[in-house]
Design a protein that fits this description.
Structural class of chain A: alpha+beta
Largest interface: A-B, 69 and 69 residues
Oligomer: homodimer
Radius of gyration of chain A: 19 Å
Distance between the termini of chain A: 41 Å
Shape of chain A: globular
């Protein structure tokens, strides 16, 4: 926290930190493999965009702070979260000038996802609330994840693994913390950022891989009916990589099992992250 | 914090508290006068609704925790913030079972608002982003205030005091942390909760006062054009009370100065809070 190494037990943070009181900050979750962060520059660039939008001065030494933690902890395989808040301040929504941002680098074990999710695939419900593609924070990875928490709890109560958000126009947006892809007649389709999707790092990697494979891929408005009728679908996120999506609400997608395009892209992604190999 | 009295300097909270990492919690800001909290029961009831929706077990002793702080600090005139988060936890959006909620009671000096705002009235811009009346969290006072922070910063850059949010259908919703009222041909109109307005405690008090005064008052969809053409308007919040709204975007409201209905209701409100007197 702010360059100091603290016990995981804490406490670490002021109760008046605006990150806590108002979700006034941004974060990135990164995948560490072999002691290195995958796509560190892309994560830092996205964080910088969020901090710029919030008017929080980006601390200059974020890359060094991450390297220090990785070295000190001899981290090999892990999940690394970098959080930057506006810092501690008094009451009120309006930021006070000259507050020192809070920088938190936290190393966690990489979460284990049930084999069920990767082998049998993910079942998603459709969230009862909508993603707001015209929010002040649309496209920014801020600390405001309350809607995602609520949607995930709702999904689990319905026996689903995750929830799919529609935007306020009823188009597919994304899942609670993953981007969405569908294969429609040989074309890979992912909702555009204008439908409230976050510009995911893994989403960008998948679009790169598709280009290398000569697989047509477009950002295009995706209706729920298109998704239900797709040949295959998958979700992308830093920690989960590519996860097959086999069911949305009552509808099986394709044969209701992971498809060949998903498997090929998932293997290529794992090759990039874990084996450091270029896709075949 | 969790019943312990800590130095204001901190640290107080774990960096892995889900209140900080995911805005996974709710809060209330209350007005303390004469050592007592105004409408404590209403605040605790609203907090309970938010915690129930989030599936966070409401700590049973919140009223006692507040009383302890007020007594220990001999607080007379103050702003009191009660925050309840889901508590510290590992990575991931899905809550882990059996996490102990974090309870923070913070006493702050009541913020001083510039005389300008109360005497000359508030100028509001219209936020470039929309309030999502169909969010999972609509109507809940959660920790997710990032949109409000961004809208307020945008308003200040435009030379305004506050920002008015429209909902996704383009109807008036509320300001960044206040409810909106307009006087239209003798009737007090406030946007319904279905337009994304938070169920404000002061909003409810104003509706009660209007009933006592025999002033017609309704919750009704309010268009921006209606507001611009209103006789008077005002914003309501716990800390600011009733604040005259005299301008929205380029439009003066009424004569561009606080109106008689606003003044009468504001006086009655102050009578209730500060003087403990019933309205005349």
């Amino acid at each position: 926290v702010n360059g100091r190494r603290l016990s995981p037990d804490g406490p670490h943070i002021s109760g008046s930190d605006r990150g806590l009181t108002l979700a006034d900050g941004a974060f990135e979750t990164m995948r560490v493999h072999g002691g290195r962060v995958f796509r560190l520059d892309a994560h830092l660039a996205r964080l910088t965009r969020a901090l710029d939008a919030l008017g929080i001065t980006r601390p200059t030494d974020l890359g060094a702070a991450i390297l220090d933690v990785l070295t000190a902890e001899s981290a090999d395989e892990a999940s690394l979260r970098l959080t930057v808040t506006r810092g501690p301040s008094g009451a009120g929504v309006m930021p006070v000038p000259n507050v020192q941002p809070t920088v938190i680098v936290a190393l966690n074990p990489r979460p284990q996802f049930s084999a069920d999710m990767h082998e049998a695939g993910i079942r998603a419900s459709v969230a009862s609330g909508r993603r707001n593609e015209r929010a002040m924070t649309a496209g920014l990875k801020t600390l405001g994840y309350t809607d995602a928490v609520l949607a995930l709890l709702e999904a689990r109560r319905a026996g689903a693994h995750d929830a799919l958000f529609l935007d306020t126009d009823g188009h597919c947006s994304e899942a609670t913390s993953s981007n969405l892809f569908a294969c429609l007649e040989g074309t890979l389709v992912t909702p555009p950022l204008s439908c409230g999707a976050l510009p995911g790092i893994t989403r960008a990697v998948v679009l790169e891989l598709a280009a290398r494979f000569g697989l047509p891929a477009v950002e295009r408005v995706l209706e729920l009916g298109d998704l239900a009728g797709a040949d295959e679908a998958f979700l992308t996120s830093t920690l989960r990589g590519l996860a097959p999506l086999v069911r949305v609400g009552p509808h099986a997608i394709g044969r209701g099992e992971p498809g060949p395009v998903t498997r090929r892209l998932a293997d290529a992604y794992i090759g990039l992250v874990v084996r450091g190999t270029e896709p075949r």
